[in-house]
Amino acid sequence: MFYREAGQFKASYQADSRIFPIRQDQIGFVALMAFLFLVVPFIANQYWLQAVLIPVLIFGLAALGLNILTGYAGQLSLGSAAFMAVGAFGTYNFMLRIDGMPFLVAILLGGLCAAAVGILFGLPSLRIKGFYLAVATLAAQFFIVWVLVKFGWFSNYSSSGVITAQRVNILGIDFRSPEMKYLLTLTVVTVLALLAKNMVRSSTGRKWMAVRDMDVAAEVIGIRLMRTKLQAFAISSFYCGVAGALYAYMYLGTVEPEGFNLDLSFKILFMIIIGGVGSIMGSFIGAAFIVLLPVLLNVAFHGSIGAFVPADLASNMELIIFGSLIIFFLIVEPHGLARLWQLAKEKLRLWPFPH
Amino acid sequence: MSDTSGQAALDTFPRLLMHHAAVRPNRPAMREKEYGIWQTYNWAEVAENVRAIACGLAELGFRRGDRLAIIGDNRPRLYWSVAACQCLGGIPVMLYQDAVAEEMAYVLQDAEIKFAVVEDQEQVDKMLEILPDVPFVEHIVYDDPRGMRHYTQTMLKGLDELQEMGRIHDRNQSDFLNAEIAKGASDDISIMLYTSGTTGKPKGVCQTHGAFIAAAKGATEFDKLSENEDILSYLPMAWVGDHLFSFAQAMYAGFTINCPESGETVMTDLREIGPTYYFAPPRVFENLLTTVMIRMEDAGAIKRKIFSYFMGVARRCGADILDGKPVSGSDRLQYWLGNLLVYGPLKNVLGMSRIRVAYTAGAAIGPDLFRFYRSIGINLKQLYGQTETCAYVCLQPDGEIKLDSVGKPAPFVEVKLADNGEILVKGPMLLKAYYKRPDATAESLNEDGYFMTGDAGFFDEDGHLKIIDRAKDVGKLNDGSMFAPNFIENKLKFFQHVKEAVAFGNERDFVTAFINIDLEAVGNWAERKGLAYAGYTDLAQQDAVYSLIREGIEQVNADLANDPMMSTSQIKRFLILHKELDADDGELTRTRKVRRKFIMERYGVLIDALYEGKQSQYIETEVKYEDGRAGKIAATLRIEDVKTFAPQGGKQAA
Amino acid sequence: MTFFLEVLIGGLLSGVLYALVALGFVLIFKASGVFNFAQGAMVFFAALTFVGFTEVLPGWTGLAQGTAGNFWLAFILALSSMIVLGIATERVVLRPLVNQPPITLFMVTIGLTFFIEGVAQGIWGSHVRGLNLGIEDVPVMFLLDNFDMIISQFDLIAAGIALVLFVTLALLFQYTKVGRALRAVADDHQAALSVGIPLKHIWAIVWSVAGFVALIAGLIWGARNGVQFALTFTALKALPVLILGGFTSVPGAIIGGLIIGASEKLAEVYLGPFVGGGIEGWFPYILAMLFLLVRPEGLFGEKHIDRV
Amino acid sequence: MARQFGDVVIDLQNISLRFGGVKALTDISFNVVEHEIRAIIGPNGAGKSSMLNVINGVYHPQEGNIIFRGQQRQKMEPYEAASQGIARTFQNIALFKGMSVLDNIMTGRNLMMKTSFLHHMLYWGKAQREEIEHRKKVEEVIDFLEIQSIRKTPVGRLPYGLQKRVELARALAAEPTLLLLDEPMAGMNVEEKQDMCRFILDVNDQFGTTIVLIEHDMGVVMDISDRVVVLDYGKKIGDGTPDEVKNDPKVIDAYLGTSH
């Protein structure tokens, strides 16, 4: 309805392969970014920043990581949380053990550690597919958490592996206040999301999707399955790793390996199912959904509805609703909220026509 | 750009081209959707390419005064060839790309063509097929080399190769082309367009640079066109309308023409480009509206309500708002809302958001259709003209739009009416001559130098010209009252289920008609009603369809009864034809005008049946299929009577 | 040596229980191609429902907790609940997803896991409960006296129950009409359909049987470790078993279970001390993964050829 | 029309292929020469697709030699075959369902794209230049196969005939020297078949591509192929020009015997 595309013709391939080919979308995106960077820090309170916006961004990044692997390259993983743990502990150790380590370099290195571990646990993908692979990734989930708990070196010998994030200081600016943490998180996440978008719209992304959609055909046109899958594992794990580092440094402050458990992996998987498998924007929509849903439920059940629902049921409502939503989305809209958004957009572009 | 002509007057197209290349070299002159994007050529590039083609043609032996046949879809390189030919003082002869071989042969022979630039293999094949009949043809240049690898004929040459030759030639003798351009004069013939000829063989209309430049200048100033306009060039290049809008006006005003990717993608391409200036015959607008309505029928109830509500608002005040007439505040608000919710998006989906001026011509446009476009804020206007007048006689001025007139005489044009009502025009845009037909030329121009359009019409009280019919078609019923078949047929055609109609009545007691139903519209209607049918012939003879058409004709009759001059022309009997009238069968011209005489001969038995009071008539007709095969369609056609109305004497015609 | 045997036998016995859970997976996978991650949640649901009924029944019927009447009534009610759950799952969740890629079906069962957990705890509460089947978890005196081996009587009996269950199911599948139909379906869905086997009917039966197996597993595991949320994780124990044994093979599940059970315990005892213990969480997975690299189709799985 | 054939491109010598105990191909030998259109025909289950799979490395025959461009070929994976200029289409369309037509065809050029994912991450600059350069080539293929109007359509939404054409486009985008077509006209109507025939001949003619094709429609095979191999139950029962094969009693037998 608000799209006025007539006259937006493309006279070059650059223009034709833009991230947002429609001018209205470009404007919308720039406006959103301006709002997130310039307005939000001034209007959002502590609670919103720390309990909603920062975790949404961080989980969104982790979900993006998983989406690269699952949504684009078609390899299901149930070990995303473990790769987050590698990123967090990796960053912690680089900060701890190397004097004057810049934080941004440390999270980069932490991410690279996660990528390396990702490649290792991605190796079975060469031989096995589908849920066999999913089960194999559980090995990573359990093994990595166990290693981090059992080997005190990783947590600088703290009890039960808890680490406390060091102070973050970049170019003399202290990132202690929620606003600053939010801005740093937002910057890192925006940059990484952009890089991911670039990858998926070029040859790298096409190879992933080719492997996802039909691996035999992919191989026949010259795509090397092993390389492509491992690359997806590495990049996906890198994203999860960075998300893990941000999770520790920008969100919680102190984390233990057990915090990166299977439940968290599932949560991230749910984000992409609800948000949209194979959609970068969907990762963030899904993260927002999963972060906000308990908040909303909390409000609802401590408010009016709470009086009519037994306490046991209320406290388990989150599980039931999550479960139902997953089932609902997989049956009704396997491509999640992102697809719904896309459909709505299509409708708006065609308005007033139905098709 | 080496413009050696200096300050010389911009009185030929080559000089205009070189002028644009010098003053706005980087402005886009042409775009073509090719390889997925709009390949853009600026004026400097266009000039360079035109030079190359011109020099290449010269190298082939093309000389001043030679004719160059140009056959193909709207492709930049064909437009360039037109310009290149003009540079050399040659005469481009435009041919319809869908012409069958023998039609082509006639024109090629008539114009004594030695050189031809054609689009692709298909056209080359056609040329080669008729080669024995056209001994003059020496060189055929093709634009698209696809599939041409194994053609060994030495007369064939790729346009790329020709341009390469031309570039070398231009480099070696850089003065040659400038000198040729300098030799050009305003009253040189700039183009030959063949009239489709409702009677007899087509005639080559020779127009001068001066004529088309005058027409372009007048139109440009009339509508304040600038170099920033975008136009979509998708109508046949051989049609005078395309030549005026896409070539002459673009060359004069310096705006951009845009060539669609292919016939199937015109609608998408239209939407992408979003032209600011648009020209189409009424049937294009009609098809668009039909699609709009059909698509809207699938919409949900709420959406349909919103749509019809705001379309109501638009009908009430849209045209007035466009014309700048006073409109109440509440209507204005509603229209604004409607624009947000319906008209804006609708125009956008149709690709018409950016249109400043749109014209239609070539046939009468239905008032509902016309009003629809104007009411949603598209400045659609009508113009009137012929090939012989560069399609430039009357234009509707902004703000003075009348549904049933074609506007006021355009700048530089003088219009007067002959005693028999025939429209006579004079001005710089008149043809120089019919090619090799001094007889015809003399016949069409009267002793005062007026061109006799052959159309009958009159001026209303505001000085707007109204067209009734072809002057020669206007006849008399046996009771002596006027019979204007076109007028009746147009009224029938405004009815969405009727595609074509042919009315008879000259020297008869009453009026009868042949009807062609619109297969798409009626088919849709039948589907909604749950009627099964097998193709056109079957659908056309169904009871329900007959009564549908009869209702329409009754409406027309009621309408005619209101007009004192026409009340005797009410249709008494009609039949629905068993086949669609088709240009391939010679029943229509290429511009889809009815060839009355031919039809009267071909379907004489049906006409007799109409007047003899028969209830049905058997007929067998030969047809030509798209692939060139011939076949026969036979059917027994039903003939039905229609209710007529008593004349309403009270209302006086203007 | 005795110690080794003791560990080995202990491992094998718990392996039988892993196999029991894995059996639930295999049944459903064979019949409908669904890798039912919710099998663990079904175990939890079954145990919790059973315990829940034993708690509320005395109030309704007057049969005291611990009496045989209460036990069997609760058992029947729990079994009925499992059947309802199974059929409902098949109807509501899986039928709309027929012909979807297996990975989607897998993910939907993860959602189902959460749903079942939520419902179970929502109805019966989240606190840990004991479950007494009347079998003491004490060493078998005979073995302790004569071989100096500590083998739990409970484990032994549980393994016995499991074995009886295996044998019963095997016999049922071999000799009943439904069993034959089931095997036909497992071989080729299309072919089964074309000879008139009512696929949906079969699926309902299989989900019910899987519910029954889950109930037995839930009772045994629940009696051993308490009825609590952690019962869900029995699924995680069963997964490596499946990878090892193959998703489609009942004997595979049993042998895989035994191998995993034994090797896990042995590794914990002999390898654990060197790396700080707690390795049974991941050891089966690593073992299964390494195995996969050698034989991607599992011990008893069928080799799959990609047709192009 | 004088067409020039060149050297032997691929020479298959005594190829035998088994799956477990099942013999798919038994002792089959034939060669393909440069620029020709070579058809493989035979009843269902004759081993035609297996033959293509052997040529581009999807299957590895247990016995026999493959001489590719004069060199004895070692066990080769499909991607290696692709890098040596072998492209193919599949009997059951094997397009990437989640991508647009354009992206599908772009994947056909993956071997020629040299930038790494690091370039792609940054996109602007080298990666974009490369992307555009290959887009141009792909657009030529799109133009060649006349599928401009569906460029941005997700392949899943296309009718069958167009999907086949897109698959051919993807194979052509790789600029193959040897093109394997597995029943390119299966399931098409007459008009689509004619189009496809024209495209196959055009490819062969314009780019000189050597084509090996499996096809059921005998009329088509006899019309467009230069030489034909006939397989039956995994064995070669005929080889020669269409006319020779048509009159070969063994071939006639096999075809009559299998009610074709």
What can be said about this structure in brief?
Chain D: It comes from Azoarcus taiwanensis. The complex is a heterotetramer of chains A (355), B (654), C (308) and D (260). Chain A is mostly helical.
State the share of residues found in helices of chain B, binned by percent.
Answer: 25-40%
State the major sheet of chain B. Answer: 8 strands, mixed
Radius of gyration of chain A: 21 Å
End-to-end separation of chain A: 13 Å
Work out the helix count of chain A.
14
Number of helices of chain B: 21
Lateral strand order in the biggest sheet of chain B: 7-6-5-3-4-8-9-19
Rg for CA atoms of chain B: 26 Å
Strand order of the largest sheet of chain A: 1-4
What string, H for helix and E for strand, traces the elements of chain A in order?
HHHHHHEEEHHHHEHHHH
Provide the low-confidence segments of chain B as ranges.
Answer: 1-7, 650-654
How would you name the CATH homologous superfamily of one domain in chain B? ANL, N-terminal domain
Mean pLDDT of chain A: 91
Largest sheet of chain A: 2 strands, antiparallel
Question: Mean of residue pLDDT of chain B?
Answer: 90
The computed structural class of chain B is: alpha/beta
Shape of chain A: globular
Protein name (chain D): ATP-binding cassette domain-containing protein
Keywords (chain D): ATP-binding, Cell membrane, Membrane, Nucleotide-binding, Transport
GO molecular function (chain D): ATP binding; ATP hydrolysis activity
InterPro entries (chain D): AAA+_ATPase, ABC_AA/LPS_Transport, ABC_transporter-like_ATP-bd, BCA_ABC_TP_C, P-loop_NTPase
